[in-house]
Amino acid sequence: MIRRLFIANRGEIALRILRTARRMGIETVLGVSEVDRTSLPAKLADQIVTLGPSPSSQSYLNIERVVVAATHARADAIHPGYGFLSENSRFARAVLANGMIFVGPSPESLDAMGDKLMARSVAVAAGLLVVPGGEAADAQEARRRAADIGYPLLVKAVSGGGGRGMKRVDSAADIDEQVALATAEAQAVFGDPRIYLERYIARGRHVEVQLLGDGKRAIHLGTRDCSIQRRFQKLVEEAPAPGIPEERHDALRRAAVRLAESLKYSGAGTVEFLVDAETFDFYFLEMNARIQVEHPVTEMVTNLDLIEQQLLITDGQPLGLTQDDIAFNGHAIEVRINAEDWAADFRPSPGRVTRAAWPAGPGIRVDTHIESGGAVPPFYDSLVGKVIAFGANRTAAVSRMAAALNSLDIQGVATTAPMHQRILADLRFAAGAVDTRFFEGLARG
Amino acid sequence: MKDDDPILLPEDIADIIAILDGALYDRIDIKTTRFTLRVARSGSGWTQSWEHTAIGPEVESVVAPSADLKKVTAFVEKKGIFAVRSPLPGTFYRAPRPGAPAFVEMGDSVDANTVVGIIETMKLMNSVPAGVTGEIIEIIAENGTLVELNGILMRVRVQTDGK
Does the CB of A352 have a partner CB in chain B at under 8 Å? Predict the structure, then answer.
């Protein structure tokens, strides 16, 4: 039984974890960087510990400081959230070695899925298809591998995920610069400069399956569609994935469960697929061994609390749910509100939010750490909040989201809310089942 | 915070809206010792805005304070000298990864598209082109330091025609 949970994250997900823990009667300790000492999660946590200076390399990404802080605070478990150290097996091992519970899968699963090249081979062994590609240890090998794969292609971080460190390369003239940039980003964000190349599939949809496992068996909580992306960063997510024939939908979910069971996966995880928008053939992309940003859409259609499930499973308990317990109802859409000026090529817009009026009301959920007066520091990602709309069907959810975005009023920093209004008004979006090229075709300002 | 202090939950806001929805009120302001909350009608829907006041007790600070934001010194631009400025606020890197050779060194010739460094802002890497043809004569921002928007990173002696 977890009594005292250390939250090794910040922003909306720190607050999200804090609320579920509190509801379950678990005490919360939040590790914060200096700039986050006055953040909303810091105000609401039972206790806070300062990890270090604001740059994440000296605070949220510093394994020793996080583990020392959690030990000092006498926590018996650490929830890593998403990003930062959430999929770092060295961190998970350090947590376990210091006698605490790591809220996530085993370090072995993190190793298998964290190394995207290893994940590809594990998926192949479990009978899944993968996109053609492979490792590129240096510039020379990258050039050679690129010539084999053909352009356009993607450069991805071996220790990556969430689209970070990922670059599209359209011709041989750009390969060196893009490989160098991707390598730098991989080193800075993941602490591992290794990269690999993969064929770029233009007419693809990004569909993922949410899983829960207890090390013995796994169940799925349905699909999410995350095809609306810009530079591989998800902008809009929905559950379930619309417009996929039931037989293919079922094949996707079963493939994901098969992979989780072959890994003896424990905890919440997500298997990401690239789905051909016409044939519905699907290819394994990666498995995210953590809670994901877009988990609320799954919660809305299953009426489950995924953070609660994580805390229950990690507590050493077997999965309390069977596949038959999972009932799907309605449709949910999430938009990510980022502090970026979409009219100025998405220039980051850190600063102080002078007014934050978030939408509210029936069928609307807001996950945010930004209140009026809240700070958006330049050190971390630009997510300021997520607006989630639920409806009995997709049309109802879309119309609720459109109304919610009209109510939203964030001042002091630029946000991507106007872009989402544009997306919601797009006829292709209204029709549903768009592919990853959607954003390129979006009418600007 | 203490256990007996109420925490403002999304469920509370939903309850407040359910009450207001049945009445004629357009908005409600609630102020407690821990937060202020405004729930207001907006079109056919509602908005919520809030501010919390309390800060949880700290267990113990485990590390040293941070270095101050490194301010890049202001520089009066001279004729023929071009300042390469940061397109974004963020962390400046002179090399693609630790240990790798720097993109450029003093005395290097560059053209407008030569990448001279990387600015990391909100976890994204942005390459910085020199923006001009010439020779690097000064490197001002150090590797791994924070720079401001338009902060000067380097100076380039501009190559003029016929030279």
Answer: no
Stretch(es) of chain B classified as CATH 2.40.50.100: 81-158
A177 at interface of B, judged by CB pairs closer than 8 A: yes
Candidates A20, A187, A384, A401, partner chain B, best to mutate (most B CBs within 10 A): A187
Chain B segment 134-153 residues within 8 A of A by beta carbon are none
Q: Do A382 and B122 touch (CB under 8 A)?
A: yes
The one-letter amino acid at B92: F
> Does a structural domain hold residue A117?
no
CA pair distance A302, A126, nearest whole angstrom: 27
* Domain-ending residue, one of A66, A87, A103: A103
Residue B159: pLDDT band with limits 50, 70, 90: confident
Contacts of B142 (CB under 8 A, 6+ apart): B70, B92
CATH of the domain at A164: 3.30.1490.20
- The CATH code of the domain that includes A97 is 3.40.50.20
A186 within 8 A of A165, measured Cβ to Cβ? yes
Per-residue model confidence (pLDDT) at position B56: 55
Name every chain A residue with its beta carbon within 8 A of the beta carbon of B67: 53
What is the model's pLDDT at position B150?
Answer: 79
Residue A266 and residue A388 in one domain: yes
* Same-domain pairing of A274 and A375: yes
B26, amino acid identity: D
In a domain, A346, yes or no: yes
Q: How far apart are CA A211 and CA A264, in angstroms?
A: 12
Q: Which residue among B13, B64, B97 sits closest to A184, beta carbon to beta carbon?
A: B97
**Nearest chain A Cα distance for residue B77, angstroms:** 26
A92-104: pLDDT as tens digits: 999 999 999 999 9
Which positions of A are annotated as active-site residues? Answer: 290
B125 and A188 within 8 Å at the Cβ level: the answer is yes
CATH number at A419 reads 3.30.470.20
Give chain A's domain count: 3
Mean pLDDT value across chain A: 93
Residue A414 has pLDDT above 60, yes or no: yes
| pLDDT tens string A256-298 | 999 999 999 999 999 999 999 999 999 999 999 999 999 999 9
Residues 6+ apart with CB under 8 A from A353: A370, A371, A372, A373, A374, A375, A376, A384, A410, A411, A412, A413
Contact B47 A46 (CB under 8 A): no
Domain that holds residue A52: 4-103
Examine the domain organization and report whether A259 and A406 are in the same domain: yes
Return the CATH number of the domain spanning residue range B81-158: 2.40.50.100
CA distance A247 to chain B (A): 37
Tell me whether residue A278 is in a domain.
Answer: yes
Cα–Cα distance for residue pair A407/A228, rounded to 1 Å = 22
A350: chain B residues, CB-CB within 8 Å: 89, 122
CB atoms within 10 A of CB A15: 23
CA distance A374 to chain B (A): 8
Residue A118 counted as domain residue: no
